[in-house]
Structures are given as C-alpha cells and as structure tokens.
Amino acid sequence: MIERYTRKEMGRIWEPENRFRKWLEVEIAACEAWERLGKIPANSLKTIVRKADFNVARIDEIERTVKHDVIAFLTSVAEFVGPDSRFIHMGLTSSDILDTSLALLLREAADLIIEDIKGLRAALEKKAFEHKNTPTMGRSHGIHAEPMTFGLKMALWYDEMGRNLARMERAKETISYGKLSGAVGTFSQIDPRVEKFVLKKLGLKAESVATQVVHRDRHAEYFTTLALIASSIEKFAVEIRHLQRTEVLEAEEPFTKGQKGSSAMPHKRNPILSENLTGLARLVRGYSVSALENIPLWHERDISHSSVERVIAPDATILVDFMLTRATGLIRDLVVYPQNMLENMDKLKGVVFSQKVLLKLVDKGTTREEAYAIVQRNAMKVWEGLGDFRSLLIDDAEVMNYLTVKEIDSCFDIKPYLKQVDYIFARTFGKKNGDS
Predict the structure, then answer these.
(1) Is 82 left (phi over 0), alpha (psi -120 to 50) or beta?
(2) In the CATH scheme, what is the homologous superfamily, with its name and number, of domain 91-342?
(3) Residue positions annotated with a catalytic role
C-alpha cells in the first residue's frame, strides 16, 4: 500500500522560524568574530548570545512599516537584546545574512533529497534483482524490438539515480558558499577575518570574489540538478504509464482497497501516481529556468532574483522530496505481470527474433543486404496477418537454401538474448545476491 507522502522535515526547513533562526545564527557568529578581534566587549557578546531572539509576528508587524525584512528582523532582535544590539550586524549588508543563510537552508534540503535518492535506489535495486530474469519485450519507438528482462529496466533506473545522487552531492558542495564582505564585496567596513571565522563555524566556504551577493550560477546548478532528478522520475513514470495501458498491462501501480478510478466508469484503474509525477516534473523544470534567469543581475547586485528564490527554493525542494518519496513507494509496490510479458512477446508471432535469422544467413554466406531482404519480406507478411514467422521462413525456398529447420528453430530460443544479464548486473551493482 502506498502511503501518503507529506515530508514535514522539508517543509519545516522553509518555515519563517527556521529561516530567521539561520539569520540569527549568522549574526551571532559575526559578533563572536568581532569580539575575538576586540571590536565588541566580552560582556556585550555574552548578553547578545544569551538574549538574542526574535518574534515572527513582530517581524511581520515591523516589516509592514519599514518594507525591509532584514531591518524588521534586526529590530525584533534588538527588542530582545537591548542596548548591546548596537553591535549586531556591524559592517554587514543584508545579502551577507540572506545569502549565507540561504546556503545553510539549501544544504539542509540537499541532505534530505540525498537521503531520498538513496531510498529510491534501494527500492530499484530490490525490484531489479526480483525480476532479474523475468523476460519482457524490449521496445523502440514503442514497437517490439528484442527480448530483455524487466530487471534490466530497474537496473537502468538504479544506475541513472546513481548519477543523480552524485549530481546532488556536487550541487550541495556548489551551494555551500557564503559571504560576509559588505556592501559590494570589498570588505570596506568589515575585517576578512570575520568572514573566515563565521563561514568556518557554519561549515561553508567563502566566495572568492563576491559582489553584494553570492553569484547565482551556484544556485542555478542546484536547481537544474533538481530538474534533472525530476526528469529522471518522469522518465520512470512515463514507462510505468505505458506498461499499465490496457493493451500492454505488463506492470501496474498498486490499486489499494477502496480506491476508485473514475466517477463514471467503475472498471477504471488509472496510473494516477505516475501521471502526477509527470506533471510535477514540469513544474520543477520550470523552476530551473527561473534559476538560470537569476544569473544576470545589474552591476554588483539587484533584487530581481530575490522574489524568484522565495518561491522556487521551498517549492522545488519540497516537490522533489515529495516526488522521490512517491516514486520510491511506487517502485516498491509496483505490480508486475510476467505472464502478460510472455504473451505480449508472442503477439508478432516470432518476428522479434528477426536479427538472429539475419545473422544466421550472413554466417552461411549471404551478403547482409541479401539476408536483410529475405528476412524482411517474411517479417512483413507476419505484420499483414499472413502467418507466423517460423513457418514462413521454413516455406521460403531461398531461406531453406541456406538453413536447416533445426538452424531456424535455434533462432527462436530466448536464452541467448538474456545470457549477458549477469554481466550487466555485475557491472551495475557489483557482486551481489550470490552473483559470480
């Protein structure tokens, strides 16, 4: 049974309480650095550390007047700290706090997404080994191609999510940069040692050359990584949607007790989870475009990126978290129909073994062009409903000039098509589950 996927952890990251708490963390760390440099009295720092706090409702109230969120935040903090609040935000500009704390928030979100990816890979690995040797029809252009196994589909998705895991880990590193270098990044009113101390304490690195902001190519890489993850999930979802089609029905989303598929047609069992994932992927890709458009800012900074990030940062991370969790449940509970796979494989009455016949004729001395023509004319008769492929080949005098019936029969053996599955699994998963 597929659970309801609401990840409260990801939502909490973007709540005002956590966002302002990150701001305060940066501000207090800066005060600690200034105290070490002798710019803030030790007793004042103790007061700041002990009393510094904020009230979200009060920040909102102040912002309605001042029209500036950081000033509203600092005013609320000052009301808790008292006179020693004059040392808070010393030499800093708003973006020092906003961009450094955004890195912390995106890093927190990345940790959850990395955990999610690992969970999805575990589900895919389990399903891959479960159906490692389950024969199914490989398709190209939506048309029967050659036999493969259903486990290979799952192995491919596992491997792709491995690349997404590596991308997300890189994106986490790319975004883990802050700056406390002042108005246009020149350290005109702040000592570089303050930045060094704060970022080390927060586990971040310093932007080598900052302006008033950390540059948005970093953020664009993060959000395009989310878009890649979402697109991979959509790829899996689209395949499941195709496999669940009535005419195919080789795999199906779980249909839980009490579930209904249509208000009008009681017989319906629709791939709603996969369709939902397809739609959400479109949103996440759109957010990546917005992140790319945030890269060019006027001169050393404007705030055209700010309104965008207030939407895309929580939305994209929450959506990808949701998508990964839903996809994991979908793969885990996927209903697979091996018998339908075998029946579908025989729908074209053996033509899926055409390449084997072609190569056998070439081995017997025909040119590839001659062999292709011989095989194709018989295969086309099958498409036209004029018989099964094996019988047509045996009735073809030109084929029988080269091949015996036994040799023709050997072309219809599925085993050679699956003989390298162990090899593919070994290089995908390593030596697992007793593989040699």
Answers:
(1) left
(2) Fumarase/aspartase (Central domain) (1.20.200.10)
(3) 141, 262
